Amino acid sequence: MRMLQILLAAPLEGHGWGMPHDASLDGWRIDDLINETSAFVILLFAIMVAWMLWAAVRHGERHPARFDHGTSRRSIAVALSIAAAIFFVVDGHLFLNSIVVWKQVFGNFAWAEAQPGAVRIEINAHQWAWVARYAGADGKFGTQDDIVTLNDIVVPQGLPVLFQVASIDVIHSFNIPNMRMKIDAVPGMINRVWFTAKETGQFDIGCAQHCGANHYKMRGTLTVLPREEWERWAGVASANSARAYDPEDKDAQWAWDWEKHARI
Amino acid sequence: MQAAAHAEYENLQPIHPEPTSFLRRYVLSTDHKVIAKQFLWSGLLFLFVGGTLAMMIRWQWAYPGRPVPLLGPLFLGDQGGAIGPATYMTVFTMHGLIMIFFAITPVLIGAFGNYCIPLMIGARDMAFPFLNMMSFWTFAVSLVLVICSFFGQLGAAGAGWTTYPPLSTNIGTPGSGQTFMVAAIFVTGVSTIMGGINYVTTVIRHRAPGMTYMRMPMTVWGLWLTAILNVLFVPVLGSAALLLLLDRVFGTQFFIAGATAVRGGGDPILFQHLFWIFGHPEVYILILPAWGIVSDVLSFFSRKPANWYRGSVYAMCTVTALSAVVYGHHMFMTGMNPLLGQGFMLLTLIISVPAELLFLNWLRTIWQGSIRKDAPMLFALGMVFVFGMGGLTGLYLGATAPDIYLHDTMFVVGHFHLTMAAASFLGSMSAIYFWFPKMFGRRMNATLSKTHFWWSAVFITLVFTGQLISGYAGQNRRLYNPFEYNFLKHLLPLNRWTSFAAFTLMAGQLVFVYNFIHSVFAGEKAEMNPWQVGTLEWSIPSPPPHHNYDVIPTVVRGPHEFADPRVRERLGRDWIGQAEPLLDQTPGTSAPAAAAGRA
Predict the structure, then answer these.
(1) Chain B stretch 388-447, residues whose beta carbon is closer than 8 A to a beta carbon of chain A
(2) For residue B480, which of B84, B173, B69 has the smallest C-alpha distance?
(3) Burial class (CB in 10 A: 0-12, 13-18, 19+), B333
(4) Chain B partners of A186 at a C-beta cutoff of 8 Å?
(5) What is the pLDDT confidence band of residue A11, given thresholds at 50, 70 and 90?
(6) Is the predicted pLDDT of residue A156 greater than 50, yes or no?
(7) How would you classify the pairing of strands A172-176 and A181-185?
(8) Cβ burial B210-232 (10 Å sphere, 16+ → b, else e)
(9) pLDDT-flagged residues of chain B (< 70)
């Protein structure tokens, strides 16, 4: 009975076995590509299984085997054509779409940077937490009014949010499944990634790369607020940070100049 | 002329007397058949160890933090029988490393490489028998290091099977367990290279007269290509392991870099390049032998020639070559240049073309056959089934856009378990059931064998399908307790069902253990050629004598000559041996049938 309930719930997004709810503006590009590929793949697999079942049932021991090495020109041409057709349709679909969405969206940092109001956040990961730094009111990183948060990232709805991601100890991976976003945080280099939130709400931030015993607890919260509310939050947080600034606390003063042209 | 040429072959491989002392016969043996059994027993033993570790992971995902039944009181007494987060990471690390380097590799490559290559190409032994012995005993040293790792201070290795630094350096995993394991990888790499050199040379130099490359059984092709990959790429892994050992033991900083906490001038990504330049060929190293074995078995038990033999050979060669240039798809999320990512994506997707040709050949081999559903055939069909799933799910991961979401999820875990674990396992089992009569001179119980197949095939598919689904739903891999995340809480029932399938799968292996051990000692005696196939090893007694062939055979045809009407007419059977002359090859037989056959 339980099994039945689970099976029935399966196709429901966020309740069954579907992908987690997509709260980003561009996540559908990935979801559609995955689901379209699934349609092809399930069809191919079904044909393969049907073929094997048919052969196993109908071409059993009593069926006389045909003496055929499959080396006729026609037979080879058929095999090559099928392989080429699958390659150009299924693989080609994946390849071209991946290039297009990467170029237009997920790798298009120039466009995202150029949007008015785009939010810039530096992430410094360590075992086992995400430290986030916003430039604050003055728009410069590494100053007294920087907003610094732990495992708590607040972003506005509908504006591009750009991250530059680094790590101080081991490799982590900055992962927000609901935003279809992921990038490794690697010590010694700065990676970047961006998304636009479509909906307000709270979402999990996770670590996708094994980073030690408490890897599973490297969890943060992403809060998406309506734009005005976020601006209010940012103003208050920046003022608070400036007030609480402690010049003695060197560990808290990590920051880097926002790199317009990070490695990727 | 021909006699003189044949004498050359005999001179190249003289018959050595069989050693008489126990030590030289069974322990420090240079006989490839004995070494194969040594690899088989140790591989199966560690397969059991790796499987037990897998059960602990599955338990943790079904009942997070609850005491493990049976195993908990035995191994985790100090933690109240439950798996803690620090123990958990050693469990999945050791599971991965043991399965890959100390279970699949010795069974598929160590055991069947050693056993099949000389016998199937008509050789009396490997080209370098002493090196072969060294290969096993070096491997034994690495097994000792693995066992040491379990008793290491601060626990066994815990940085994941991929051993990414800086986590795998003293920054992330201090303690001798990790050091022992990196050393074990290095030592087993030395063993693999010794074996690889031996296999490559043996196939080139010791093929019997007439055994051209295009008459070699597919099994030999698979094992040979595997050996070539091993010789080329295991040294890269060895160098990475050595540099990592230097970082751990001597304080160098090849792979250490950092902003504030751990200053260092090295590059953690360099390790990933070195690791995956080996690591991607490695997945083909683990599957090529199974492809070869399955290609042969499907033809043998369909009683039909393998469809487009040359096509399969070319496809496997193409995959071998491509395997070296696709490794970057493991690193799409490391901040790789998008153009480089696109290049790796294209090369990765191109692999699907030879893979499709291989599948088409398998499907057309069984089509219009006369299929005998013996255990080796069932396992071969099962392998095609799970590899179909595993191969198709690889498509998503080879493309840069879907990988953003799927990277490092359980979808990846399901994909590579279907290919490397399920397909390799079913392929190995096909090989074990197929060559068992030759290895041990006895037969395994057919009913138990088929029971083992259905049990294993059904539950192995369920386990890894469960992983695919949970990954699609967003569950990340290597999480001690995935249900800490809000968006994964509802996946507990799915994980629990998957775990039940895994436990059932493991329990079903008892059928195999009983059948295998019972049959080794008390199975029904096997005749020379119980499966009625034509490859060379079935033309000598079971088990073969120490020197394999009294006279080195002269090969006259390919390995899959089934259902030939001329053979049926002359010999009244549907198969013919590779070294068995017929009609035109035998001078002086001018029977009308022969003339008709020629015409």
Answers:
(1) 388-389, 392-393, 395-396, 398-402, 404-409
(2) B84
(3) buried
(4) 268-269, 334-335
(5) low
(6) yes
(7) antiparallel
(8) ebeeebbbbbbbbbbbbbbbbbb
(9) 1, 258-264, 583-599
**Residue A254 to residue B260, Cβ atoms within 8 A:** yes
CB pairs under 8 A between A and B: 326
Residue of A nearest to B479 (CA): A216
Stated length of chain A: 264
pLDDT, one tens digit per residue, over A41-98 is 999 999 999 999 999 999 999 999 999 999 999 999 999 999 999 999 999 999 999 9
Q: In the prediction, which pLDDT does A14 show?
A: 58
Residue found under tokens 């191994």: B75
- φ, ψ for residue B476 (rounded to 5)? -80, 155
CA separation for the pair B513, B325 (Å, rounded): 40
A5 pLDDT tier (thresholds 50, 70, 90) = low
Residues A135-160, mean pLDDT to the nearest whole number: 93
Interface contact B89, partner A, CB < 8 A: yes
3-state helix, strand and coil shares in percent for chain A, rounded to the nearest 5: 40, 25, 35
Find out whether A113 and A194 touch, Cβ atoms under 8 Å.
Answer: no
- C-alpha closest to that of B114 among B42, B55, B182, B30: B30
Burial of A257 (0-12, 13-18, 19+ CB in 10 A): exposed
Question: What is the ipTM metric for this complex?
Answer: 0.94
Q: Are strands A160-167 and A129-134 parallel, antiparallel or unpaired?
A: unpaired
Beta carbons of B166 and A169 less than 8 Å apart: yes
- Give the per-residue pLDDT at B260: 45
Q: Report which DSSP code applies to A149.
A: E
Q: What is the pTM of this model?
A: 0.93
Any residues with CB less than 8 A from the CB of B451 and at least 6 apart, and which? B511
Buried b (16+ CB within 10 A) or exposed e, B339-361: eebbebbbbbbbbbbbbbbbbbb
Contacts of B258 (CB under 8 A, 6+ apart): A167, A168, A169, A187, A188, B166, B264
Distance of CA B204 to the CA centre of its chain: 22
**Alpha carbon distance B577, B560 (integer Å):** 9
Q: Judge contact between B476 and A175, C-beta under 8 A.
A: yes
pLDDT of residue B217: 97
| CB within 8 Å: A49 and B167 | no
The token duo for B49 is 């160890």
Q: Rounded to an integer, what distance in angstroms lies between the CA atom of residue B581 and that of residue B578?
A: 8
B14 — contact with chain A (CB < 8 Å)? no
- What's the gap in Å between the CA of B496 and the closest CA on chain A? 11
Q: A227: left (phi > 0), else alpha (psi -120 to 50), else beta?
A: alpha
CA–CA distance from B420 to each of B65, B281, B286, B351 (Å)?
Answer: 29, 12, 6, 16
Q: How confident is the model at residue A219 (pLDDT cuts 50, 70, 90)?
A: very high
Q: CA-to-CA distance for B74 and B71, rounded, in angstroms? A: 5
Q: What whole-number distance in Å separates Cα of residue B187 and Cα of residue B196?
A: 14
Q: What's the token pair of residue B23? A: 């030590």
Give the DSSP H or E segment for A207. strand A201-207
Is B70 exposed, middle or buried (CB count within 10 Å of its CB: 0-12, 13-18, 19+)? exposed
DSSP state of A69: -
Q: How far is B39 from chain A (nearest CA, A)?
A: 32
Banded pLDDT at A10 (limits 50, 70, 90) = low
Which residues are bridge partners to A134 per DSSP?
A121, A147
Cβ contact, residue pair B363, A52, below 8 Å: yes
Token duo for residue A143: 């100053």
Tell me the shortest Cα–Cα distance from B279 to chain A, in angstroms: 17
Backbone angle region of B236, left / alpha / beta, with phi > 0 → left and psi within -120 to 50 → alpha = alpha
